[in-house]
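hi! just following up on the protien thing from before. the input was this:
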Amino acid sequence: MAVSLVAQVRMPGPSLFARSVNDIRFGCLSLARIRHHRCFSSTQSVQKSSVTRFQSADRLSGRTCLITGGSSGIGYAIAERFLQESASSIILVGRSQKRLEAAAADLRSSAGEIHSTEGTASSNVSDRIRLLVGDVGEVASWMRELEQEMAKVDILVNAAGVSFSSILPRSEPADISHVLRTNLEGAMLTSRALIRAAIRSRVRSRKNEDTEAIPFSKCIINVSSLLAVKGGTGAVPYAASKAGILGLTRSVAVEASASLKDLIIRSNAIVPGYIETPMISDFTPGEMSRLKDTIPLHRFGDPREVADAAVFLAQNEYANNCVLNIDGGLSAV
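and the predicted 3d structure came back as:
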């Protein structure tokens, strides 16, 4: 097989919130109003923006990265960029094996085109992409498999998220619970799994302390949302979960330093604004124009620009509790 399927977790059956909760892989929903959105994959077209062509510098050479929500949107863009930066292995986590396999195929094609254009040799991209099928909102049910995968992970990206469109008085408790479990509890439990695996690995490696160089730190990158800091209508649970992500980021940065001896774990966050995804194709030209007028840069962001921020956070060893707004200046308005 071109892609190694490292684990497949038994998924729960259809739930009562399936009718209104949709997968999202982008950072910020409309601050004016939140509407229902279709699920989308990395193969769907995204409006092109004038992003400067990226030049790889092999900044993540030798690193293993696990990315939740990696089959589309921001998660997919980060996976693509990490491969360009020579990450040794990318583990994509998602609920749908079909969508993960489609994303992996796209990543293989994309990486092949880049290396062909730049004329550089590369290892087999297929061997560097692995898939982990599991629902981040139900991590507790497959924690053992997750911790096993975390054993060699250097960089964890929490990019998975869900939302639904409803004002709070009309929101069903099950929908609210699902959003909080996936967006906040899921990120917390994946972070826990990384830290626990890092502690075990550190204990095992102490026997060879005299022969080892100073290791890279472990890095957690949480994808939050502008809704965490800027109010909106129709997404109270989503906004609360993304605000919680910022609290998680800060607390892990401090707690890891205070409680973990001889182990460095950095915790950082990205706060995206309006990002070019298939979601915005539902906006009318008038809505698009009005929204862009509210952004100081007068355009939406590109997922690759969010991925640039992720590369910086992953490779900069002094970036800890670093929160990057990627919103074109909208947070200042």
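The mean pLDDT is 82.
The first strand starts at residue 4 and ends at 8.
cheers
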